[in-house]
What we know:
about 30% helix
Amino acid sequence: MFLENTVNHKEQFGWIEVICGSMFSGKTEELIRRLKRAKFARQKVEIFKPIVDTRYHEEMVVSHDENEIRSTPVPAAANIRLLADDCDVVGIDEAQFFDDEIITVCNDLANRGVRVVVAGLDMDFKGNPFGPMPALMATAEYVTKVHAICTRTGNLANYSFRKSNSDKLVFLGETEEYEPLSRAAFYKAMLKEKVSKMEVEVEEVMHTKKDTNA
């Protein structure tokens, strides 16, 4: 369970909270919950997201459950530093899509006394650490890892398996392109995909040899 930090007015430093997990794990839902609580407490809150994320709305941060909060889309992490003046709380969604400057930006804001709440995928579709997320998790005071439910086993899922054939690292999508999988299901799915590619390559080689001999 996450507990908000108590405020010590003698200490002017803020802190960083990271909410991470796979697709469909409720990261954005939890981000919105924390930011709405801060707004209810009459704190000045600003929310940012990468300009590439326009899946649901160009300006709103929207969860899969259609919960939403207004945000400012920015092209680069450096813009957040310029736009977050006089804020008590700064929220950042889809942090994995930002450049590495986001790490310095979040720490600079926290050092200025700002509470920074960051949400993002901790792993990409190949199961590798995603962009600046590992460094953000390492420097944060609080890290909350949320889980989806595996569509194949019903166990807790922490991997985002891409069902499409695209190899692009930044590939926005929903249930048509991704599904949350447990470790076992993800391993089996990746192994099956690897075997399938090997079979295709062998078939292509056989066709090439046949054409050469003809």
